[in-house]
Amino acid sequence: MSTAKTWRYKVGLIQMRSGVDPQANLAAMLAPIDEAKRAGADYVLTPEMTNILALKRDDLFAKIVPEEHDPTLATLREIARKAGIYIHIGSLAIKASPEKAVNRSFLIDRRGDVAARYDKIHMFDVDLAGGESYRESNNYRAGELAIVADLPWGRLGMTVCYDLRFPALYRALAEAGASFVAIPSAFTKQTGEAHWHVLIRARAIENGCFVFAAAQGGRHENGRETFGHSLIVDPWGKVLAEGGTEPCVLIAEIDPAEVAAVRSRIPSLHHGRRFELVEPMAEPTHLHAVREPL
Fold it and tell me: Does some domain include residue 289?
C-alpha cells in the first residue's frame, strides 16, 4: 500500500544521443545529472538505451554485460546515494544470456539501492516507409510483468518506448495507483514526427497522470536518427517542458495534487465498463410480412 504524500517535487529529464561505447555514454550523462541536481531535481530520468544504442548485433553483444557487472548501473547507484536523489535509468541493454539481452529500466532510490526493475514488454518489430526496418526481438527478450513503484510523492508506472502504443498497459498502471508514468524512449524520427506528441499527451489525458518521457535525439554515430523532444506532460495534457533534438536537461515542478483534481473532474478511471463483444451474424435475418389467405 502506498504511503505517498502530495508535496511538490522537481523532475529532471536527461535527453541524450547515445553511441556504441558505454563508457563514453556514461561520461556524457554525468554533467547533465549534476545540472539537474543543482536545479533542484528530486527525481532524474534518462532515456531508453542509456548505455548503448547499437543496430548491429555484434556491436551490441561485444559491449553489454550482465546486470551485476554493468558499470553504468554501478556508477549511477553511487551518484544517487551521494546526491540523495532518485535516478531512474530509462533503460540499459543488459546481457541476459549468450543469445539474448533485456531492455531493462532501473529505479534507484536515495540510498543507491535498486528499488524496481522493469523489462520492456513490447518489442519494436516494425517495417516503416522508405525501407526503415527494426526487429528488436532478434536481440532482446521481452518482459512479462507490468511494474509500479512507490516514490515519496506517489506511485510510478514504469514503461519503455514502444510500450507507448499499448494503452491497456497504462490503464492497468493507473488502476494500480500510478500517478506518474515514465516513458523513456528512443523513438525514430519518422514515427516521432507522426505520433510522439499525440501519443504522450493521450496517455496522460486518458489516465489523468503525469508523463515523464526522456528521449534520445539526433543522428547517432551508427547512423540511426531519433526524434528527441523529451516531454513532461501534466494530467490535463499540458506540456510543461519540451526538448529539441540536441542533448539537454529539462526541469519541471510537479504537484501530485493535480492528479486527484483531474481524476475527480473527469473520473473516467471509475467509468470504465466491462462489455461483451458480439460478432455480427454471417447472414442477416430478414423479417417478411406474410399475407393471410382470404
Answer: no
* Radius of gyration from C-alpha coordinates of the chain: 22
Please state the rounded mean pLDDT for residues 268-290: 72
User: β-strand 217-219 against 210-213: which pairing, if any?
Assistant: unpaired
CA proximity to 79, closest of 160, 152, 14: 14
What is the percent of the chain where pLDDT is above 70?
A: 93
Number of separate domains in the chain:
1
Q: Output phi, psi for 274, to 5 deg.
A: -80, 140
Range of the domain at 149: 9-270
pLDDT at residue 79 greater than cutoff 50:
yes
- C-alpha cell read off for 149: 513503484
Residue 94: is its pLDDT beyond 50? yes
The predicted model scores a pTM of 0.92
Amino acid sitting at position 234 = D
Task: Let me know if residue 280 belongs to a domain.
Answer: no
Instruction: Determine phi and psi for 111, rounding to 5 degrees.
Output: -90, -5
Q: What is the CATH number of the domain that holds 37?
A: 3.60.110.10
What sign results for the dihedral spanned by CA atoms 164, 165, 171, 172?
negative
Residue 275 in any domain: the answer is no
**What's the CA angle centered on 172, arms 274 and 178, to 5 degrees?**
135
Residue 278 in any domain: the answer is no
Q: How far apart are the C-alpha atoms of 165 and 170, rounded to whole Å?
A: 10
- Catalytic residue annotation: 48, 120, 161
pLDDT digits (tens, 9 = 90+) for 205-254: 999 999 999 999 999 998 899 999 999 999 999 999 999 999 999 999 99
Q: In terms of DSSP H, where are the helices of the chain?
A: 22-38, 57-63, 71-83, 167-175, 189-191, 197-207, 257-265, 268-271
